[in-house]
């Protein structure tokens, strides 16, 4: 139950506020910025919640805007805050028991809705659209209780068009319906479902070639163009499902961690028999996300040999190898190799692709449009150095970063076993499934420079 919402600029000035209950003094917002600045001066780690004079503050920050909720709960339960990112900080004030995750989730949904409406959520867009923002605040929360948070449903009766004499008095049925994320009466000439299984690989390799960190972050994204109120059932090669039902898996089964679903998924059924059953929103949405904390073999391996010549020049030999099956191909591969800040007079030679010097990023960029599995390529680079590089500069150099996208391939081995579509009219729908593996935070640390003078000239 929320008492008020505040949106502040970076200096703490109130841009917009909405007082739902009036049970917390509005002057409490004046304490927010001094408390945040005090914590920063003490070099404390930023926290999404803190307590001052019996009031609990929870907040998120988005594009230098503070979004603040005031609640009337004390002893707020702080659970599940790992999903917060640096760009978002949310403030809430409480006096009774509440779930902090629910509060923070609502604030994130609030910024998502504003971003969908205004494209860019910043101080200028807040000032230019204050009328619509007040309407959204009134519809998304009623007397402090969260209500509709689906942008597509809100856009049906809260528009950005100019005022008209004929306004819609009644909100869509979805607002009062159990299925609040989908409107009734949707019709398509051709019923289709597009399902993308996208996995991002996070990897960190040290200068000795040892993998220090690896994980897979996956997401199943859908585009649904279906008539009526269809019910979908999705089956995956889920290890827990096979074990609970006593069935033998055909091929590889995976064990997903940190699974998060869209609100349309029936969680009770998933907990009972691991069936993903849902009535989908119309259009594009993310059905679920998951994580696999497993040892991942580097898909694209990069080795670097660096040879420096007493501060006058530096030479690189970069070897890249695709360590996945030959039938797969990585597209738009980009290898960013850091070079000294004052490097000049670049010269490149590569067996494939193109190489460019990006002085604004202090790196060279090796682009390979198509990188087939099992292939290995070499690139050489030469730079002049106007000044002598210190040993400290060598120690602080950033790692090599690799970008890529491999279609029709998943590193975890996840598979869509079936996608059933049931609708009372009995129409036939076409499901399309696509697999994509791409880089996440994919980094390989550079080795120490050598001074042998044995590297072949370009």
TrEMBL record:
InterPro entries: Adaptor_comp_med_subunit, AP2_Mu_C_sf, Clathrin_mu, Clathrin_mu_CS, Longin-like_dom_sf, MHD. The keyword Transport applies. Pfam families: Adap_comp_sub. GO terms for biological process: intracellular protein transport; vesicle-mediated transport. Keywords: Membrane, Protein transport, Transport. One of its GO terms (cellular component) is clathrin adaptor complex. The keyword Zinc does not apply. Residues 190-445 form the MHD domain. Its main location: membrane. It is found in: Endomembrane system. It comes from the Eukaryota. Belongs to the adaptor complexes medium subunit family. This is 211_t:CDS:1. It comes from Paraglomus occultum. The lineage of its organism: Eukaryota, Fungi, Fungi incertae sedis, Mucoromycota, Glomeromycotina.
């Amino acid at each position: 139950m929320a008492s008020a919402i505040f949106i502040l600029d970076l200096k703490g000035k109130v841009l917009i506020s909405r007082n739902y209950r009036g049970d917390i003094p509005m002057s409490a917002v004046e304490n927010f910025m001094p408390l945040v600045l005090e914590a920063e001066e003490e070099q404390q780690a930023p926290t999404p919640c803190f307590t001052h004079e019996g009031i609990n503050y929870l907040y998120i920050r988005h594009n230098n805007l503070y979004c603040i909720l005031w609640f009337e709960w004390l002893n707020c339960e702080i659970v599940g805050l790992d999903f917060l990112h640096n760009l978002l900080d949310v403030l809430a004030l409480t006096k009774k028991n509440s779930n902090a995750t629910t509060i923070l989730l609502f604030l994130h949904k609030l910024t998502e809705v504003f971003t969908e409406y205004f494209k860019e959520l910043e101080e200028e867009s807040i000032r230019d659209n204050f009328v619509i923002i007040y309407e959204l605040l009134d519809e998304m929360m009623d007397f402090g209780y969260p209500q509709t948070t689906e942008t597509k449903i809100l856009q049906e009766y809260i528009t950005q068009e100019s005022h008209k004499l004929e306004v819609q008095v009644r909100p869509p049925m979805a607002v009062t319906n159990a299925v609040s994320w989908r409107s009734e009466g949707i019709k398509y000439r051709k019923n289709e479902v597009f399902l993308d299984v996208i996995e991002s690989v996070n990897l960190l390799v040290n200068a000795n070639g040892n993998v220090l960190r690896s994980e897979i972050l996956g997401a199943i994204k859908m585009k649904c163009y279906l008539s009526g109120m269809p019910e979908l059932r999705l089956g995956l090669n889920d290890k827990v499902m096979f074990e609970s039902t006593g069935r033998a898996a055909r091929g590889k089964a995976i064990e997903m961690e940190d699974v998060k679903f869209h609100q349309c998924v029936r969680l009770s059924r998933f907990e009972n028999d691991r069936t993903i059953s849902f009535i989908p929103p119309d259009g594009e949405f993310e059905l679920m996300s998951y994580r696999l904390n497993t040892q991942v073999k580097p898909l694209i391996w990069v080795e670097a040999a660096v040879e420096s010549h007493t501060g006058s020049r530096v030479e690189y030999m970069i070897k890249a190898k695709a360590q996945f099956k030959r039938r797969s191909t990585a597209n738009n591969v980009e290898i960013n190799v850091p070079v000294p800040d004052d490097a000049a007079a670049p010269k490149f030679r590569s067996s494939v692709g193109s190489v460019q010097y990006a002085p604004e990023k202090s790196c060279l960029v090796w682009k390979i449009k198509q990188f087939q599995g099992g292939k290995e390529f070499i690139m050489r680079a030469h730079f002049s150095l106007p000044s002598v590089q210190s040993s400290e500069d060598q120690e602080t150099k950033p790692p090599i970063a690799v970008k890529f996208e491999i279609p029709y391939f998943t590193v975890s081995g996840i598979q869509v076993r079936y996608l059933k579509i049931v609708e009372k009219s009995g129409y036939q729908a076409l499901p399309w499934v696509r697999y994509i593996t791409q880089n996440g935070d994919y980094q390989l640390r550079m080795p120490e420079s050598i001074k042998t003078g044995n590297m072949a000239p370009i």
